[in-house]
């Protein structure tokens, strides 16, 4: 569906989606700013194993993976790409979207349908497989009907409504805003007083050059009409003791086009501390929000699928309004102020919300589109930000976002965030060895480590450790964090466990002094040391260390499904098995498998399953059961990882050895 911005394409798509859902179709809505993230979610929703998904995104096979599952889906489905105004984003990396080999393809599944909304109407942009339906502005009669219905007949006669419809070119977005202004002036709870009380006075005020262009309205003129209509609403708020409402709306446009958790963002001190909002109070902010909603400049709604009130309240902006106000003269003249307050709202909302902890992931999932948008705009955007403080805070927000992406296994988006910032740091006034950039380089090392690129992780982290030690000191918390990741990269390389153990012992002692004996990071390093001890044959010591860490984790109320707790149980069971205490090890690993919330074919759970097989093989008479479990595990590994994956190689070799040694 192709048409002008504001012509109602997304509204038609939404109605289509609702009808499809009522008819029993599976429906997926993909907003273009969240394209990669939403396609990942679709892959998982269709049953793609998490390891398969991550590998596909890593090696550039994501489009083929998603479409293989879409074409195999047994249920009728509808996939909607909304606001695809840059068609090439839906195409393959090395070709146009019309090739049909990118995100946008003609379904081979007869039960599947793809719907795209876009301002681009050119046939060659979409290819011969696409059917293009033009969404035209409303004619004057339909526009008049819309005005009359939305105002409840308060705006004047049918002829007056037709006149305003013609003046606004029949553009639904502009008609809606006009109707909301007229209705608010007549019925508002916020005491708006204005000469704009009906269709005729609004028509004279807007005074566009649209005339009777209607369906032949140009994109430029359509944008001008929306800008003028929005301007009337914002001026009305400014003139009637709500001067902060238009400013707040412009701050919202500095965020992503994704839904905005406004309660979460507005609860902190960012507005009160900004020169844009002198004398800001909660009451004034709430009044500004009410004014914006009443005049139709934002749409607010409540989410029913969240447990935290701060995440329930959401608002959205129309993409045209978002684009128009982002180019506003005041925003362009004062980018550090506008983007700065958006940045500080996000930092305040994520303060003390450790992105590594699963309990905080629902918050980060909602905020991530905005943290990505704002941090990139402040550092890599077109508007020059002269305020170094804002750029420094943007780097911190980017680092925290990368940590969330890494913790949730989104390694490719994390890499795509941090590497350009590292490579282009000189362009926004930083050196690769500045502590802010070293924070991003540390996360880059973590990404390589989690991707099992151990030599590259070691190379990156050695450089970070050297620079951090020189700038911050050998035992600074940040230096210790990089030293730990470096030790992990060394430990994972066969034959270097002893080298890693020496490093880890010194790091643990330093962590106890810097962070304390029971700090989360101290315990994580102690766990890595326990694994190293176990690998070197000190099984009793490894057991004692793992049990002590688990006791502390329970005392500090870590959820049993926390990945670090599951890995601790794996380490404990391995140390018990090495001491010929297989029955005890079985109890530990069964509890871990019971508590794991990840899918059974996730990397972590398959490691636990492999450990469970080793435990069964250590108990007399349990070999047949172990073989059955191992066959299932090998089958799952063949399905979700390559044959060269370390766990796959180990599991297959163990199965062959066990079958060969079993009595016939």
Question: What are the defining features of this structure?
Answer:
664 residues, mainly alpha, three-stranded parallel beta sheet, two-stranded antiparallel ribbon, 5 strands, 62% helix, 4% strand, globular
Descriptive notes:
The structure is a single chain. The N and C termini lie far apart (67 Å). The longest helix is centred in the middle third of the chain and has 21 residues, at 219-239. Helix content is 62%, strand content 4%. It contains 31 helices and five strands. Strands 1-2-3 form a three-stranded parallel beta sheet, with helices on both faces. The protein is mostly helical. The chain is globular. The mean pLDDT is 88.
Termini separation (Å)?
67 Å
Largest sheet: 3 strands, parallel
Discrete helix count: 31
Low confidence ranges = none
